Structure to design on (299 residues):
């Protein structure tokens, strides 16, 4: 097996055994294929279709009239899909040793299996097998099977748009953390302030700060939703509600601006950047030729 340091892809070596060739080809198809690998693209499309179909089936089975007629078909489709997902998960773990950082047959596979995306894949598979467990009729067994909804997140593995969305969140995580922290502080201050202002007038509603409607009111007001299920009745409470509403508009606009700037930067890098290539063979140059990593390599 040969490993190209510039592109991060593995290629067939004439001296490889048939077993190693099969493992490498499996890894290319399910995990690390080139852009021109048609078989890998077909597999990605099929898996994405199964994920979307499973989520649609999960929603449709809650419609009693539909489930009474087509419930057996929905269950058969789910069983078939989970069989495919299980096989894919096993193939990923089996073939990951083709990569140098996962080369060890035991530690490498364990390290790969505990990666974020692989743990997400495991969460997709496990709820199906919970129904065969002794506790599946208990209340928490039903709650665990709600993990089936995690399958929709897994489609990000096969969608470049969702990968861009995730990349923006990762690139702007520090700014987003600051904005979220500021909003949490404002939520606590607004909820506590309303409690002290309205507690005497509405003691049955504002019974405490963390375990009553004070925090709920603060969240609905800061987000400018305003469900109307509770309102301040004192003059100072109404004045406070006005201030909190104005602050909420400003504070919740911060993450929107941060994400918007991140998307602009991500899209501009993806459209303007061209991978430097060797003038002789045309292959992309490895990172060792550059002192500063390119924007594409940083991603």
């Amino acid at each position: 097996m040969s490993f190209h340091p510039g592109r991060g892809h593995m290629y067939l070596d004439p001296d490889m055994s048939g077993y190693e060739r099969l493992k490498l080809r499996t890894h290319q198809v399910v995990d690390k294929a080139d852009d021109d690998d048609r078989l890998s693209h077909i597999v990605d499309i099929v898996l994405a279709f199964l994920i979307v179909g499973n989520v649609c089936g999960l929603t449709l089975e809650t419609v009693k009239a539909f489930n009474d007629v087509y419930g057996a078909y929905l269950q058969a489709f789910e069983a078939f899909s989970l069989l495919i997902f299980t096989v894919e998960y096993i193939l990923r773990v089996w073939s990951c040793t083709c990569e140098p950082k996962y080369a060890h047959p035991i530690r490498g596979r364990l390290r790969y299996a505990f990666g974020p995306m692989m743990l997400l894949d495991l969460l997709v598979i496990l709820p199906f097998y919970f129904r065969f467990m002794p506790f599946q009729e208990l209340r928490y067994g039903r709650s665990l099977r709600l993990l089936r909804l995690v399958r929709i997140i897994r489609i990000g593995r096969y969608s470049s748009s969702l990968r861009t969305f995730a990349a923006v969140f990762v690139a702007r995580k520090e700014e987003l953390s600051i904005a979220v922290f500021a909003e949490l502080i404002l939520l606590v201050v607004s909820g506590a302030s309303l409690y002290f202002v309205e507690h005497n007038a509405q003691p049955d509603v504002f019974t405490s700060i963390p375990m009553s409607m004070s925090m709920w009111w603060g969240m609905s007001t800061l987000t400018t939703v305003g469900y109307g299920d509770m309102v301040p009745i004192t003059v100072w409470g109404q004045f406070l509600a006005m201030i909190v509403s104005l602050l909420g508009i400003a504070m919740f606009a911060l993450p929107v601006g941060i994400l918007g700037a991140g998307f602009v930067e991500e899209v501009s890098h993806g459209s303007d950047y061209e991978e430097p290539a060797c003038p002789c063979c045309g292959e992309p140059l490895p990172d060792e030729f550059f002192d500063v990593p390119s924007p594409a390599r940083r991603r």
Q: What stands out?
A: The radius of gyration is 26 Å. Residues 1-8, 292-299 have pLDDT under 50 and may be disordered. The CA atoms of residues 36 and 194 lie 60 Å apart.
